[in-house]
Write the structure tokens for this entry.
Amino acid sequence: MRRFFVDKADKSETKLSGAEYKHLAEVLRARVGDKIILCPNDGRDYVYAIKALDKTSATLEYLYDYPNETECALDLTVYPALLKGDKTELVVQKLTELGVKNIRPFISEFTVQKSEKSDRLQRAAHEAAKQCGRAIIPSIDKPQTFDKILPQLGDFDNVVFAYEGTYADGKRIDEVIRGDEKSVALIVGPEGGFSEKEVLALTDSGYMPVTLGKRILRAETASIAGSAVIMFLTGEWK
Ligand code: SAH
């Protein structure tokens, strides 16, 4: 059954209109009697049957609702440095599929791209959440500067500072992740990596560099692979 994100879902007859309705009627060519799922971002799926279709909206009859099983217990927030071209969009799509809850892009000393059209990222997250069956669309923050996000890292049970630096005695990720965390932050640098100053600011704040293996991964690979490993280590992949 196709899913549609809405502001609210009543347990009664309701209407679907706007862009979501257009998608349903024109792209999916839905018919009366078809069943769809509405997701009001409350972690539950609400099943409706299409009762009527007119030019601007679909009338839906409530059938039942249940907890959406795909959301992670772990609240993983990823801080990916802004990347060139559409690579941040790729990161948003893949992190959404992986169950990441918040994506907070940042601008650092070596980021080449200093701004991002956030509606593009929102759309990528929305489409990916639909495709992979999630009930929640990850929150996508507007890009912030590195010095703004640094203090936020203290809000998490654990922080994975992925650092490619050769001289750093990068810890293994399974030595840092305990597995019982409720919330984790993963921070990944841009194509040019972290600057000395940023590495010092992170290590001085007590965040030990973590290695993602002996090869230098592209930033987008590091965010995606790092998120996947954290999901596995905290028991989300069972
Ligand atoms: N300027 C670097 C590459 C940066 S890769 C160089 O060419 O040497 C972009 C980001 O991905 C890094 O800042 C880091 O956060 C992450 N990353 C890439 N490979 C990594 C690895 N082997 N271990 C830990 N982090 C890595």
Summary: The chain has a mean pLDDT of 95. DSSP finds seven helices and 14 strands in the chain. The chain has two domains: 2-67, 75-233.
